[in-house]
Write a structure and sequence with these properties.
With about 180 residues, the chain is α+β, with helices and mostly antiparallel strands. The chain has one domain. The chain has helices at about 1-20, 45-55, 60-80, 105-120, 175-180; strands at about 25-30, 40-45, 125-135, 140-150, 155-160, 170-175. The protein has a 4-stranded antiparallel sheet with strand order 3-4-5-6. A two-stranded antiparallel ribbon has the order 1-2. Strand 4 (about 140-150) and strand 5 (about 155-160) form a beta hairpin. The N and C termini lie far apart (about 75 Å).
Amino acid sequence: MPALRHLGLCLALLLPLAAEWPAHSETLPICYNYGCKQRGEAVLGPLDNDQLASLLDQPDAEGERAAVGQAIGLMNQIAARTTPIAADRGGNVQDSGDGSQDCIDHSRNATTYLHYLLEHGWLRFHRVLEPAWRAPWLVDLHYAAVIEDLKDGLRYAVDAWFFDHGHPAAVLPLPDWNKGFSPQ
């Protein structure tokens, strides 16, 4: 019986501390090194989730789209803690070495991030679609993640490929992106 009393006392002392322990981290699969040749995991903790939730607390679809661009940049920064993607540079010309990403990597990762945001209830005005592709000059194939406005059905490309690592993604009407949009 003394052992049970000792165990009960230990539990009574530890129980209040358990409420202060951080919630578990969540992992997301990501890919890099062109064409998703390498795979890794982004690890998001409670503070990351708090930051994302706060960022995406927007009053309307337009605000949410702007926040989505910011969230993709932030999630790439988070993923760089556990993968080498911080080496990625905008486009493909300046890329070199481990961690570089082409548009296939970016579109898949952004779609994964968007599903994560949706599953947590932080996307209230959009749904996530499959990545889109374009080939405005036949040989210039390019991919981007896509969201759709729940109210009017308009679709938007979500594309971070143009920018250096961690920069917010461009979020623009899909027809404009399909015409060959490039911020350079």
